[in-house]
Hints:
Layout: H1 62-75, E1 77-81, E2 86-90, E3 96-98, H2 124-127, E4 128-132, E5 136-141, E6 148-155, H3 160-170, E7 178-184, H4 193-210, E8 212-216, H5 222-237, E9 246-252, E10 268-273, E11 292-297, H6 307-319, E12 322-325, E13 328-331, E14 334-339, H7 343-354, E15 359-362, H8 367-375, H9 385-395, H10 405-420, E16 425-428, H11 438-451, H12 459-471, H13 474-481, H14 494-502, H15 506-514, H16 519-522, H17 525-533, H18 540-556, H19 566-577, H20 610-613, H21 629-638, H22 643-650, H23 656-673, H24 677-704, H25 706-714, H26 725-731, H27 735-738, H28 741-752, H29 761-769, H30 792-800, H31 803-826, H32 835-856, H33 864-873, H34 875-895, H35 900-916, H36 918-922, H37 928-964, H38 971-986, H39 1030-1065, H40 1067-1083, H41 1093-1106, H42 1122-1149, H43 1151-1170, H44 1173-1176, H45 1178-1207, H46 1222-1231, E17 1280-1282, H47 1298-1301, E18 1309-1310, E19 1313-1314, E20 1324-1325, E21 1328-1329, E22 1339-1342, E23 1348-1360, E24 1370-1371, E25 1374-1375, E26 1377-1383, E27 1395-1396, H48 1405-1410, H49 1416-1425, E28 1427-1434, E29 1443-1454, H50 1460-1468, E30 1477-1482, ...
Parallel strand pairs: 5-10, 6-11, 7-8, 7-14, 8-9, 9-11, 14-15, 15-16, 17-22, 23-29
Antiparallel strand pairs: 1-4, 2-3, 5-6, 12-13, 18-19, 20-21, 23-26, 23-27, 24-25, 26-30, 28-29
Amino acid sequence: MSVRGRCAKVLPSELNKVCPERGDDPATHPRKMSDFEVVPNLQQSSSSVSKSRRKAHFPAGSNEKENLISWIPENIRKKECTYFVESSQTSDSGRIVCECGYLREQHLDDAAKPPIFLGKEWDPTRHIQEMPTDAFGDIHFTGLGQKTGKYVRVSSDTPPRVIYHLMTQHWGLDPPNLLISVTGGAKNFVMKPRLKNIFRQGLVKVAQTTGAWIITGGSHAGVMKQVGEAVRDFILSCSHKEGEIVTIGIATWGTVYNRESLVCPMGGFPAEYVLDEENQGSLSCLDSNHSHFILVDDGTHGRYGVEIPLRTRLEKFISEQTKVKGGVAIKIPIVCVVLEGGPGTLDTIYNAITNGTPCVIVEGSGRVADVIAQVANLPVAKITIALIQKKLSVLFHDTYELFTESKLVEWTKKIQDIVRSRELLTIFREGKYGQQDVDVAILQALFKASRNQDHFGRENWDHQLKLAVAWNRVDIARSEIFTDDHDWKPSDLHPVMAAALISNKPEFVKLFLEQGVRLKDFVTWDTLVYLYDNLAPSCLFHSKLQKVLLEEREHTAGSKMPRLQMHHVSQVLRELLGCSTQPLYPKPKHTERPRLSIPVPHIKLNVQGSSLRSLYKRSPGRVTFTMDPVRDLLIWAVVQNRRELAEIIWAQSQDCMAAALACSKILKELAKEEEDTDTTDDMLALAEEYEHKAIGVFTDCYRKDEQRAQKLLTRVSEAWGKTTCLQLALEAKNMNFVSHGGVQAFLTKVWWGKLSVDNGLWRVITCMLFFPLLYTNLITFSREKRLQPMGCLARLRAFFTAPIVIFLMNTLSYFTFLLLFAYVLMVDFQPTPSWREYLIYFWLFSLVCEETRQVLYDPDGLGVVKMASLYIKDFWNKLDICAILVFIAGLTCRLIPSTLYPGRIILSLAFIIFCLRLMHIFTVSKTLGPKIIIVKRMMKDVFFFLFLLAVWVVSFGVAKQAILIHNEERVEWLFRGVVYHSYLTIFGQIPSYIDGVNFNIDQCSPNGTDPYKPKCPETNADNKTPIFPEWLTVILLCLYLLFTNILLLNLLIAMFNYTFQQVQEHTDQIWKFQRHDLIEEYHGRPPAPPPLILLNHLQLLLRRGLLRRPATHHKLKEKLEKNEEAALLSWEMYLKESYLQHQQCQEKQNTEQMIRDIAQRVDVLAELLDLDGVKRTGVVEQRLGSLEDQVHQSAQALRWMMQALRGNGFSSGEDVPPVGSSKALDTKESALEGRPEESRPPYHVLARNLLYPGSHTLRFPVPDEKVPWEVDFPLYDPPAYSADHKDMAVQDPFSLSLESLLKINYNTMDGLIDRQSFHGLYAVQDGLPLNPMGRTGLRGRGRLHCFGPNHALHPVVTRWRRNLDGSIIRKSLKKMLEVLVAQYPLSDVWALPGGSLEPGETLPLKLKWILRREFWPQFQNLLKQGTEVHKGYLDDPRNTDNAWVETVAISVHFDTQNDVEMKRLNSFLQGCDPELCIRWQVLDKRIPLHANHKELLHKVSTLLGAYY
Length: 1508
């Protein structure tokens, strides 16, 4: 027997300590009631609770522990027996126990003292009290690895909201998208291996894909064990991230074995729990595969089922909560899954069906599940007591003797009610057509229940779609929602489209696009703001946006953070795309109206999703659509690194090549700032993927048409900030794209200008030196711009403006400059500058002017500062500036006579830098260009290598100098000894005196006084020999040479080799990429070389300064006309589709993909072959049955036609051919017996609901076959119930005494009360009238006012539903009606405006609430003119055996739109109660009304021939 004793007094210092040793004898620690303090029910703890999801198996942090330790005792209670009453039963060990089931020593001290309560009988309501719980924390299952979960002991009266708060706020669980309540057998049972595997896989799949919570009984037995093992198998087969499934076990505290190990007043972190099935006896152990446990305590021991009421309330509470995620708000749906089970399981199913919860019954699991599954397809009339008895005798053969006759009646009644609600019942049969998986069956059950729920308009379809999006089950959406049953308008899908985007569900985005959603209509400015407002906080782009908003707030000195606008997004995007692009979303001017039509601050969806839907329901004039919606969505997806979503959107893009290159640029820039290495790798991989997409599209375009493909490279894209594809590729450093043959062909074409690329270089140089040769055929021009027929000036212009000619002329000019500069430095450097030197100065001035032009040349309008920063970034420009500054410094010194020689030295250094500038010229060479790149890379290696070398050089130099030389004070000789000599030693120049052998006193200065000699080493004063330790200096020298010459130098060689190999692999790509910079530079450079370039500068100055002409843009950009651009983009989009189709074909032909496809097909084939013969022929049988139905219908139609012809005398009976034999018809009728009937049930149904409305009274179960009074029912013993209506002036007595009943006159007018029935005389037995429709399971008058008939009036006020133009709307060729309905206070359902008639009244009281008093007489006239559609018994839940409702339903229809009476009725509709709602509602079978009212509406629609 489990032990409950535990000391509850814990000092504050022991707050964070682990519980006491479990071995303490509980009998030695009795508890006192004074140790506990009663606190309010729910209080918020002082410390904040982290709402982020935490994994269940992680130990709680210190703050979370303290918060939990303080919150739980204040808000969660347990129950204790406070009065020991000896029970007649004993414990398993034969000891005396209390009525609660616990031993005497397991009670509090006060409970064992003399009685303090009156009476000796044990009463749980008086003798069990609540006190703070003493068992909560983390449960660790000993010996089972790292299996850890959360647990708490709660009182059975705990409010569900407290438990839900604990789970979501303190345990860190995300609210579920679905609640799966698994119920069934609590003891171990045997399932078929295949069915077990199907159930486990399907249950876990639906939980994992939808983000569901699974709730079970929590014990290690029966169905709970099956669920736990399913979760265990899934976790073992998946990664840790995928294996998070919330499995909540709700068990009875008093039935848990080893529960004493869980008791710890300050919380167990963790509490060690031993799963011991061998010694558990009648108790049960907790299942180790559950993640959370709620242990329900009612103060008793060993009593099962205590947790059921709390579990029911908790599940109902959770199902009423609304979860908002990704813009979609749904009420959390709940489904009940049933395996096996006994009587308790039947009650659970019945309660679930009664509450509207769909149930999935797994056929083949045994007992109750099989009983319901086998009768589920039968008509309710066929489900009899005898049939249920037969089923129970087979399926409950071990316990069948325990079923009494009354129990059989109760089971039959409950099963009839369960089967009657077919829309809530789903039978999972292994191998059933269209239902191979349990997860599909569960979701289909939810959709079937939702589809059959009553609703207004299209709310039901919206709800189903929201569920599918929340669950991320696009397969269910395709099969269950987007069917022929409902026509979806694209605008109806806009809210869920936004939700799918935000929650990153690409399959749904693809589905919505297939269903006709047009991005042009969907993407508005408001939508974009909403999408960017809902960026994930962990997204890098989100933090950059917040930084921009913060800077704007600081700039404007505002206190509030400015609201996000699209120009803020544009600001961040421009940083990512580069300054060569214009802002994608320009900032609106203050004088202009904002681009956003309506501000959308932090939109939240309510249950109906109207907030987001309102974005798309504004007037057309107020919605501002964007220029390129595909671009906008693509950017939004890419900045969040959403691969699948971006790929779907990119496939919709028109300017696809620019879009791919821009995405590559954005991702590469974001990857530079991303801190998470995994995310960085993903971004770089996605950037490379988009580069390959651009290459693929461009390759197809180039193959089709080279000229149009090259136009795509230089076309100015308005959508992407007026940039070009080529510029985007260069900004993103997409070397693969730039090195593409088509791009290189275009660059070569630009390089040769108007010259033909077939001209040899020697021809160009010859014509450049002897330009008259241009007028011969030595030089040819491009074919499309052949200039031979033109004049001399045109040929000269075409030749000398070609970039290659400009480059060659500048190269020749630069070599001339260097030769002249070298001549002046070495030969002609006079105190007074010569004319050659002045020419050099003039030449340099022209170079300075050209560099200035490059800085000020701003075709894109970026500004001088930005152009200067871009200019400085180029390495060769830095070298130019360095050379010019050094030259100016040398020139300044040279012009001063006293510094003539230093000036020449500085100018010599400048010459070196100018010579290095020659390497830029060589980059055009395909041979030398890559080598120059390699040299630049190796310079970086040398730079880092010098740090390592300096350590050894300085360390050896200082040590050598200190050992050899004493107090050398000359700085220059210190530097020589420490650095210079040490550096030269590496290359073999070893000092001769370092070993003392070659020492010569004449080669040094003993005192260091000779400025041209080093100071002598330490020597002996007598013989002038060195006295320093030669052995030490030799060892140091050897070590130094070992590490520098062998180790470091070889390391440098290895670094050079690695760099060479790395660059050599991509040398062609790198050269082709960097070749563009040189081509673009000379494409926009003035044609004349320095110093003649000054003439071009003067011309440019005159044009811009004096003539005010705009600058000629020489950049590789081309602005196309709209028609030409549209045709070009259409051509590009067509080839993009071809490229995507080709990619799909390649993927299918891929060997690995083919192997995967074949493996998948083999698995499917194996699944099909594994089914038995009956299941394999299920489809055939279904089709045969359908064919049989059609043949039967055809035979009936032919028989009717022959009877009609024979009746008109066209033929005699002898000539009639036989149409189907009677045997065939009999077979057909017998075959139809197994199908549910569609007709109305013959007996009242609502009047036999087990729970009587408005009370806790349960009816006696009455199966259908026992309803008529004529049928003998000896067991029938219904309870009596009569409510006391204190607010009613007239009502019959609520006591069933014969004396009071004899005063009532039945079947006549009894004063003001009309006790006459529309069905004639009714029987009266023992002073009580009998319900003419049969038994109901309850005596008395219930909540009705009178015994016998209670008369009511229900006016059905209708009108035709019309369009705006007044025409009547039709559906299925029938006119549609609108009916007047009302929702009364304290009611959550709608009803017809009518009700019970008070004695002596002609109008119901509820109808008077709706109408003004002055309109009552006119409405009575309308009723007199109306048509009576029903008069008689009404199947009402309030009916009893002795009191029932009879009503008169009158149809009041307004046929014309301008009916005066209808207008007057609308004007007089008024609710005297502000909570009363009245509306005209479209009439169909799904309108949410009382079931009996819907029967009346059906009759009215039939009468008027309207749609229902």
